[in-house]
Amino acid sequence: MRNPVIRIPYTELFPPPTIIPHTARSLPGAVAALQEFLHAPPPRDLPASTIILTGAGLSVASGLADYRGVNGTYRVNKTYRPIYYHEFLTNHEARKRYWARSFLGWTTLNKASPNAGHYAVRDLGRLGLVSAVITQNVDSFHPRAHPEIPTLELHGYLRSTVCTSCWNEFPRESFQRELARLNPIWDAFLHEAVASGALETEDPDEKRARGIRMNPDGDVELPEAPYTTFRYPACPKCLSSPPYLAEGKAVVEVDDDGAWSPASNAGILKPAVVMFGESIPAKIKEAAEDAIDKAGRVLVLATSLATYSAWRLVKRAKDRGMPIAIVNVGGVRGEDAFFADLRDPQMGSLGVRVEMSTETLLPALLAQLRQPRFQRAESRMADGSSEQSGAAVFKDMLS
């Protein structure tokens, strides 16, 4: 029996947004609305702290592709289909294809750095305006840019691999070295591509001419590439000490070079991300809900909220009566319901919807917030409870 096809939701653009307040159509108006949003007391005795929820659009300025933006992969590469979790677990050839493409994309992804948007989040935290961050991104830019602000990586992270049998994690860098050792021809091709700049060009015509498609999350697509020749290592922990499965002791075998063998029934390494069709771990889901419940406002940055895991958190905030601000270029899933009960004339204290890039808007917002009159207000906020709630927001996440 064939596995059922999992539909990728919301690959087309959402309807354009209604700007709220109407003055937020200009950069100064948007900055003023967000200032009001961040400084007005939350309603119903909610905490004074703000939690930020971010998506792939925030990392576009770092040179990474996104899924659903105006120039996202679902728009410009109509044939793109991500690998599904059940497919990765059960299909050796699918894993070869995945790891070959990831091998080519890791160098560029690993070299990329946080951009002005990530550092603006850091600075909002230093001003006492942000207590925590939830991100859908797997690029690790948030913990790199602001390690002092608690960050919950809702969909995991690419900096590690994890075994699907023993659940031990291993650094992606060491895994990359093993892939290079097992696949010397692919490694030579990668070095040639890096030296030529083929993996770094932003020119879509040049990418097409080179036959390269850059997809999100470090996936590099080479049409007609010999993916079946690619090899990947087994989990070193399971190889040295095979775990016990429901049917008995696991079998983990490798070939003469140390590549995982299809004779195995365990020891498969996957990226430490939530793959398509995979459930978010319960402890991560609960930590995200707890973070929302400990905040008084939610600021949504650079995401269409197409994934249910993110949308449900904003819906939870709405149900709690929390003010919501959304900054995104393009429409957002179900956004009208988030602002349906707003009435003029509110200038941002209860809700904001801005259609501008975070790369432009957030630095401008920080410039205004650093003015002396706002510094005094932020100093008073920092003396309150926001610091305490921020420090405790993920206290039990990994226990």
From TrEMBL:
Q: Among its keywords, does the record have Lyase? A: no
The Deacetylase sirtuin-type domain extends over 24-372
GO terms assigned for molecular function: metal ion binding; NAD+ binding; transferase activity
Q: Which Gene3D superfamilies match?
A: SIR2/SIRT2 'Small Domain (3.30.1600.10), TPP-binding domain (3.40.50.1220)
- Amino acids binding Zn(2+): 163, 166, 235, 238
Q: Per its UniProt record, what Pfam families does this chain match?
A: SIR2
Q: Does the keyword Transmembrane apply?
A: no
Segments crossing the lipid bilayer: none
Q: Where is this region: Disordered?
A: 379-399
**Active-site residues annotated for this sequence:** 155 (proton acceptor)
Keywords for the protein's UniProt record, in alphabetical order:
Metal-binding, NAD, Transferase, Zinc
The family annotation for this protein states: Belongs to the sirtuin family. Class I subfamily.
This protein is called: SIR2 family histone deacetylase-like protein
Which species?
Canariomyces notabilis
